[in-house]
Amino acid sequence: MRIDLHTHSTASDGTDTPAELVRNAAASGLDVVALTDHDTVAGYDQARRALPAGLTLVTGAELSCRLRLPGGSGAEGDAPDSVSLHLLAYLFDPHEPELARERELVRDDRVPRARAMVDKLRALGAPVTWEQVARIAGDGAVGRPHVAAAMVELGIVPSVSDAFTPQWLANDGRAYVEKHELDPFDAIRLVKAAGGVTVCAHPLALKRGQCVPESAIAELASAGLDGIEVDHMDHDEPTRDTLRGLAADLGLLATGSSDYHGSRKTCRLGEYTTDPEVYGEIIRRATGAFPVPGTGG
Questions:
Q1: Closest C-alpha to 198, from 178, 217, 215, 213
Q2: Other residues' Cβ atoms within 10 Å of the Cβ of residue 109
Q3: What pTM, to 2 d.p., does this model score?
Q4: Buried b / exposed e across 112-144, counting CB within 10 Å, b at 16+?
Q5: Helix-, strand-, coil-residue percentages of the chain, each rounded to 5
Q6: Which sign does the torsion angle of CA 200, 202, 204, 209 carry?
Q7: What is the pLDDT of residues 86-125, one digit of tens each?
Q8: b or e along 169-179 (b: 16 or more beta carbons within 10 Å of the residue's beta carbon)?
Q9: 52: pLDDT confidence band, cut at 50, 70 and 90?
Q10: Which residue of 95, 183, 202, 290 is surrounded by the most CB atoms within 10 Å?
Q11: Other Cβ atoms within 10 Å of 29 Cβ, number
């Protein structure tokens, strides 16, 4: 079995519609794909209706969290007081009211945040407009990749990834703006209460900025975190070895995923995959929803 548990559609910041994504997943030889758009399950019904025979769909979301760090002041030149953390949530009840309310709060903050980033970019001499960003985002949950895509259109940067630097949109970059984010301990509690399973996404992706400390991963594991994403395009081989050892020490599941965004990033569907035994354990732990097998009808 080939299993990819981290993908994005136009419901957030991918370029494939949910229907296109599942069709492309099947064409890529995947047996299982999880749709994990940022803070939303809006694309799930469309993906389910278009699901090809032989492909199983896992409902999910990538939740935006912020982890407070002990000893950090956040002052310039000092240790940061927090770090961004993305939590992959699988097979939870999408209608559970408390988790649904928190996802909505995060989504509602995305528009004013993106507008504020546009204002910062314009102040820095980059002529991005809100109308341009909104056009690129379409009906999706607007985010930094849409702002970055606008910068690419204008020739300010050569690629979306080149916008995620301290000069522009990286965490604490010149045009970065914080948004409403969940406390990861609260997020784990909410997902568990909704019958779901949680995996920390790309925890040591150095090029994204400040990483999640190993001590914090241990605390999250004690709070009920189920796993960590090990095999990911932003983790080199030594980092994957470190994370695999950490997962073993903490009794966490180790997953692998593409973090596919369509043409917005270079990763391919199924570029990294999850072991079938790990996938089976995720299913065993989940009570909020179940994977849906495609019938082609």
A1: 217
A2: 17
A3: 0.85
A4: ebbbebbebbeeeebebebebbbebbeebbbbb
A5: 40, 15, 45
A6: negative
A7: 999 999 999 999 999 999 888 888 899 999 999 999 999 9
A8: bbbebebbbeb
A9: very high
A10: 202
A11: 11
Structure tokens at 115: 């507008």
Mean pLDDT within 216-225: 97
pLDDT at residue 175 greater than cutoff 90:
yes
Res. 72: pLDDT tops 60: no
What amino acid occupies position 87?
L
Q: Where are the beta strands (DSSP E) in the chain?
A: 3-7, 32-35, 56-68, 82-90, 197-200, 227-231, 253-256, 292-293
For tokens 């999250």, what's the residue? 220
3-state SS, residue 138: coil
CB atoms within 10 A of CB 161: 17
Candidates 210, 205, 221; CA nearest to 69 is 210
Neighbouring C-beta atoms of residue 167, cutoff 10 Å: 13
Q: Is 141 left (phi over 0), alpha (psi -120 to 50) or beta?
A: beta
The two three-digit tokens of residue 204, written as one number: 């040591």
Mean per-residue pLDDT for 182-210?
A: 90
Q: Does position 158 have pLDDT exceeding 50, yes or no? A: yes
Q: What is the pLDDT of residues 245-268, one digit of tens each?
A: 999 999 999 999 999 999 888 889
- pLDDT one-digit tens code per residue, 42-51: 999 999 999 9
Q: Is the pLDDT of residue 75 over 50?
A: no
